[in-house]
Amino acid sequence: MGPACGKSKKGYLFFAKIKVMQFRSAAVFYNIRKTSVAPLAQEVRDYLAQKGLAVRVITSLDELAEHPADLLVSMGGDGTMLCCARAAAPLHIPIFGINCGTLGFLAACEKNDFKNSLQQLLDGKCALNERFMLQTRLLDQDGQVQEFLAFNDCVLRAAEPRSFLTQAAFNGIKIPSYFGDGVIVSTPTGSTAYSLAAGGPIIEPEVDVLLVTPICPHTLNQRPLILPGNATLTLAPTFKQETSRALASIDGQINLSLPPGAKLEITRSPVRAKLLCPKERGFFSILNRKLNWGNR
């Protein structure tokens, strides 16, 4: 058991004990299209098996629902971690990310250090970080509803490159609309992704907020907006041409075409992603190493 920094209900920092998690089974996931990762996935499987875990290598996250595991090892880049987060969060399965990609901002370790990091995990020396997720509801004029989980963000944009008007409401109350290339609604974790590139602020992952960042607004007086985490933001795109369509992009991986008159309702999801990582790989350390934050 080791100390971890957390927050009380009043927002003050305190130190809490990290519960040592016992893992009896694990699933090792990698993107089947990245064949170069396959041999390393087998090495990870063998290593965990030697430690007494029942381990299997999977290439489809649908297998998690059919055969749950105590631990999901994500092998790839940040895109793989996003897929794993959306699949594992509803099942309450913690994720340990091994970076086999380029940036690896969300990973627990680099691929050349996986044995040492996994041993820390098995020894109870890794922190369990629960991350805020978005619940996006697509509502059409016929009353049909589709729901999606997002780990990083939900982006509303035009199907073709053009500016459009987006009517917005906060907890059912109309707020000023957005006119530009679109709107990014992100979690605190997603604040370092597309939102950051669009000029949004960096938000520490434990902060309970929604971040709304306009994309190329056609005005000088629209800036990123921070809303309470329990808020419901409604976005309804409108176009001058009837044939124009808007797209909703979930984590940049699931793209939905909005029918005319459809709208998005975005709020905090009741489920959270559970990320495991060594204590030395904290948020500000990764921010500095991966994005050069604070370097002179």
Write a brief structural summary.
With 296 residues, the protein is of the alpha+beta class.
Offer a few descriptive terms.
disordered N terminus; 21 strands; elongated; 7-stranded mixed sheet; 6 helices; 296 residues; alpha+beta
Descriptive overview:
It is built from 6 helices and 21 strands. The chain is an alpha+beta fold. Strands 3, 4, 5, 6, 7, 8 and 21 form a 7-stranded mixed sheet that branches. The N terminus is likely disordered.
N-to-C span: 37 Å
Shape: elongated
Main pleated sheet: 7 strands, mixed
Gyration radius, in Å: 20 Å
Proportion in β-strands: 35-45%
Number of strand elements: 21
Poorly predicted sequence stretches spanning 5 or more consecutive residues: 1-18
Number of helices: 6
Mean of pLDDT: 91
SSE pattern, N- to C-terminal: EEEHEHEHEEHEEEEEEEHEEEEEEEH
Give me the oligomer status: single chain
> Helical residue percent?
10-25%
What class do helices, strands and sheet pairing give? alpha+beta
Q: Helix and strand layout, with pairings?
A:
Elements lengths: L2 E5 L5 E5 L7 E6 L7 H13 L3 E5 L3 H5 L4 E6 L1 H11 L6 E5 L9 E2 L3 H9 L3 E6 L2 E6 L5 E6 L2 E6 L5 E7 L2 E8 L1 E5 L7 H4 L11 E7 L9 E4 L4 E6 L7 E5 L3 E5 L4 E6 L4 E6 L4 H9 L5
Parallel strand pairs: 3-4, 3-5, 5-6, 6-7, 6-21
Antiparallel strand pairs: 1-2, 8-21, 9-10, 9-20, 11-14, 11-18, 12-13, 12-17, 14-15, 15-16, 17-20, 18-19
